[in-house]
Amino acid sequence: MTGGPAEVRCLLMRGGTSKGAYFLADDLPRDPAARDDLLLRTMGSPDPRQIDGLGGAHPLTSKVAVVSVPDDPDVDVDYLFLQVAVDAAEVSDRQNCGNLLAAVGPFAVERGLVAAGDGHTSVRIRMVNTGDLATATFPTPDGRVDYTGTARISGVPGTAAPVVIEFEQGAAPLLPTGRAREVIAGTTVTCVDNGMPTVLIPADALGVTGYETPQELEDNAALRDRVERIRLEAGPLMGLGDVRDATVPKLSLLAPPARDGAVTTRTFIPHRCHTSIGVLGAAGVAAGLLVSGSVAEGIARLPAHGARLRIEHPTGFLDIEAAVGAGADGAPAAGRTAVVRTARKIFDGTVFPRPGRTAPVLDPSS
C-alpha cells in the first residue's frame, strides 16, 4: 500500500532553465519512502511521457523543491532538491539544483516563510542536499514578489525580474581527487566540485567537436557508453562512492568558444545531454577554467580582466562570476561565485497525484 495525501498544495515554478513542483515540507509525508512514492505519482513517473502527472518528459522538467523552516537561526529557509526520474521509479537527493534554487526565495515569500522587504528581499538558503549556502536577492516592490523585468537568460523565452544568487564557499575541496588532471577510462579529465560534482572532458578526446546538438550527442551510442564509463570510474575517485544509481557526477564536454564566450560546453546530466547548462554545473566549469593545469588549458579563452566568465551552451550562454584562490593547504579553492537567473510563478493550487496501488493489479488476460 502506498501512503501520502490524496491532494497536495503545490506551486509550479520555473527556476532558471528548469521547471519544478515546489512544496512545503509540512505538506508532504515525513517518511522519505512515502514522500518519494507520492512525488513519483505526482510527476507521472515512471512513464517516458509522464502523461498522468506534472512532469514534462525530461529531467529538466521533472524536478521537485521541498522548502522548510530551518533549525539554524542564521539561515532563512532549507531547500531540499529531489530529481524525479522520468521513465524509472527513482527519486534522487544526491545533488543540488542551482536552477530551481532561483525560485526558492520567491516561493518562501509566497508561502509566508520569509517576510518581503520593500524594494528587494534577500533570502539565505541552505541547500540540504550538500549543506552549501546561497543568498538569493530579488525584487519585492510593495512587499510582493515581482516576476516581471528586463533580465534575459538563454534557454528561456522573454524577460523577467533578475534573481541574483551568490554562493558561499562550501567545505568540499574544489579538486576532489587532489589533482588538476586525472586519467579516467583512458581519458584525461579534470574533476571539480564547486557546488556540483562535475567532470570536465575535452570534447575532441571523445572523438566529437563539442558543437553537436544535444540530440546528436544522445544518439551517439558509443559516446554515451564512453561517457558513462568515465562517470562510473570518476565517482569513487571523487568521494561519491558507487554512482551507478546516482545522477552525479555531471560531465561537461569542453570545446573552444564558438562566439565571444570563454568556452563551449555540452553537459550530460548524466545520461541526457542538457539543452543549456545547470547553474552549479556552470559554476564547476568556471572554476575549472581557472585552475592551473586543468584540461581547459588550450581550450578556454579567458578574459583579460574581471571575474565574469561567459559559458556557452547549446541554446546560448550563461554569465557567471567566479574566482579561484589558494586554500589553507595551498590547494586551489573556490572563491566568490555569483550568477543572475530569473524565475516565474506558473500556477498555485492543489495537485492530485495518481492514486496509489491499494490492491494487486489483475492480469486482464487471466
* Helix content, binned percent: 10-25%
Strand content: 25-35%
Strand order of the largest sheet: 1-2-3-4-6-7-8-16
Number of strands: 16
The ordered H/E elements are: EEHEEEHHEEEEEEHHEEHEEE
Radius of gyration: 20 Å
In whole angstroms, how far apart are the ends?
Answer: 23 Å
Note poorly predicted spans. Answer: 358-366
Shape label: globular
Family: Belongs to the PrpF family.
GO molecular function: isomerase activity
Enzyme class: isomerase
Organism: Streptomyces mutomycini
Summarize the structure in words.
InterPro entries: OMA_tautomer-like (IPR047687), PrpF-like (IPR007400). It comes from Streptomyces mutomycini. The protein is an alpha+beta fold. The chain has 6 helices and 16 strands. The chain has helices spanning 32-43, 98-101, 104-110, 214-218, 221-237, 279-290; strands at 8-15, 18-24, 63-68, 77-84, 91-92, 119-127, 132-140, 162-167, 182-184, 187-193, 197-202, 250-255, 263-268, 308-313, 316-326, 332-351. It has an 8-stranded mixed beta barrel. A hairpin with a 3-residue loop joins β10 (187-193) and β11 (197-202). The longest helix is centred in the middle third of the chain and has 17 residues, at 221-237. The radius of gyration is 20 Å and the shape is globular. The protein starts with 7 loop residues before the first strand and ends in a 15-residue tail after the last strand. The model is unreliable at 358-366 (pLDDT under 50).
